[in-house]
Amino acid sequence: MKNRIITIFSILALLSTALCSCVKELDGEVVNNLPESVVYNDKTLIQSTLAAFYTSVNYGQQNGDYGSYHILDEANVQYGAATTTDDEKQIPRNFYRVYDYGLVRRINQFLKGINSSTAKSLPSLPEPERLNMEAQAKFLRAWYYFSMARSIGGMPIIGDTVYTYQAGVDVTGWRVPRSSEAQIYRYIIDQCDQIIPRLTTSKTTNSAVVNKWAALMLKSRAAIYAASIAKYGNLKTPTVRTTGWEAGIPADSATAFYTLALATAQKVIAESPYIIQKDAANPGLAFYKATSVKAGNTEVIWALDRLAPNVVTTFTNYAMPYSLRDYTEGNALGALLNLVESFENKDGSNSAIKTNNTDGSYVFYNSVEDPFTAKDARLWGTVIWPNATYRNLAVSLQAGQINKNTSGNYVINAGATGSMNAGDVLTSINGPIANSNNYVNKTGFLVRKFLDETVGAGLNPTFSAMWMPRFRIAEAYLIAAEAAFELGQTALAVQYINIVRDRGGIQPLTTSTITFDKIVNEYRVEFAFEDHRFWDLKRWRLAHTLWNGVPGDATAQMFSLFPYKVVSQGDPNNGKWVFTKQVSYKRATTPLYFPITNYYGTIESSWITNNPRLVINPNQ
């Protein structure tokens, strides 16, 4: 029988996850198509094989894919034509669907190889290190199953089996049926339990390599997902399930999953070396550093890392303020008013930004920053609002001026980008302007999170080595809060959620003020742009109600906020600012729409052809 062949990515692939960012235990050399007998007789080749798996599990939305942010309610891309085509009028059913059993087979091949007598006898690969590498591979496989489950439900679980086809082999026995959705989450949890004792308890370089705490976080997240699907799937979408529960989880499973999620999150909180990053002197900057700065980070547990010059992201180049651009692009991504208004005001007042009085007259602000400095400090670390700084330079976002006409009425006056009037800026070079011009903001806000502050980070070809966090310690606190709340342990829920809220300087919740909606919103503001929002609304079965496709709807329609400076000599409001709220350009005619059918992606006919034991998903 021919030796099986394992394809090993080059060192560029090794570096590309930045797992690789100088993580010595995964350094490797350039190799290509080597037989197992060679691979598992060389520690460096084993490391390179494992590193390649890290490059293969970058699922979901991340900061190398800014162009799809307009699918959610956090930001809009700011270039190209308005969203009107059929495939953009609703959130795609198979948005970030994951299905790759080829990867599972390759990982299983690796697990077999690293447990071979050849690998076990390598003097350079002591047993604890070998077991740690085995555990990492199993974690990445579990992460794959999790990413598949959250997109299409229960799917075949093939364990450690390596299927090797030869002509004439009867493949009937290889056709594994779909597991139930509860079973696949339990499998992920079980895999985490198996590997936790074998993973390091120490932090890894740039959080690029998984450790014990990453495995506990995956276990806790899997449990909270399963719990919320069990509860809210049956409460809100009881018909969205299959007969055999391949999609959907029975309601009586919720309590056990919530209990497990709470206990696991508490273990991370109590025993891990990670702590919430905050600084009372500058809480907004502290939050930015917690998500977007590797040096001195105390919060990120596992991340998709990058290492220049081979593995970089162009996010900063495209999303940075055009007025402060490093290269030729800028302003490609505008944060939405919907997101900005979800950040609470520090004094507990209505978080909606007031633009008009009850009589229709403008609300005047002394500074263009007044509505935003009043908010949760995490807002500064998440978006760039008008006149906020980037690299210590103010970012001008001005749609135009408010002047008085001869009748004494205020009128809006706007011009082209960079235009002037009466010796003052009329419309900023950044905008906002509600048109299709590229490099012009159209929402009134830019995205700060994951923008690299390093000078030259937007330059071609070096660009930025910005990472993308997958697990942060803040999530452990919110999982604990959510699970405790669902289990009726309200005081405990309040304790955990307030630790996260405290970093923003907002009012603490009490047992009488904490609600499910408060928890939902806390996830939203804490993890904006971090690939949580889409999956959270799916597991809570909120997506079809919030993104209902109704024009003008407060949660389905995307909104912008345009600032105008009052320029009117002799007027008591001269030099003040007003704002206007309007639908956001990219989705001006197409509010977000998530049909109820979209809670589970489709099972393709080609998959069923290969495996007739697969059953289709609901409403397919």
UniProtKB/TrEMBL annotation:
Residues 1-21 form the signal peptide. Residues 73-226 form the SusD-like N-terminal domain. The keyword Membrane applies. The keyword Glycoprotein does not apply. Residues 298-618 form the RagB/SusD domain. It is found in: Cell outer membrane. Keywords: Cell outer membrane, Membrane, Signal. Belongs to the SusD family. This is RagB/SusD family nutrient uptake outer membrane protein. It comes from Arcicella lustrica. The lineage of its organism: Bacteria, Pseudomonadati, Bacteroidota, Cytophagia, Cytophagales.
